Amino acid sequence: MHVRGEPDFVDQVPRREAFERAHPEVEITYHGPYWRAIVPDQAGETVVNRYELRALLDKLEELTADDGKPGSEGAG
After folding, report:
1. CB 66 within 8 A of CB 76
2. Residue range(s) defining the domain that contains residue 37
């Protein structure tokens, strides 16, 4: 998949795959110019949109850092 305006997208693919393995409940999709993640939580769900996959993964790692699952970078 070619992502317009994001030449570093390919570098983020292994990171995305690792996150999805650690957090199968999180849905990550691409919607043209932006990425979207839906994160289930106690209140229902949190929706995160970012134009860059790197920024989306940064935010998702921040949101899931305290869940205690392997692969949650920044936990501790």
Report:
1. no
2. 9-64
Structural domain contains residue 1: no
Q: What is the 3-state secondary structure (H, E, C) of 20-32?
A: HHHCCCCEEEEEC
Q: What is the pTM of this model?
A: 0.76
Q: Which two tokens stand for residue 2?
A: 């070619």
Number of domains the chain contains = 1
45: helix, coil or strand?
A: strand
How far is it, in rounded angstroms, from Cα 50 to Cα 68?
A: 24
Residues 31-44: tens digit of each pLDDT: 989 999 999 999 99
Residue 60 included in any domain: yes
Q: Is residue 28 part of a domain?
A: yes
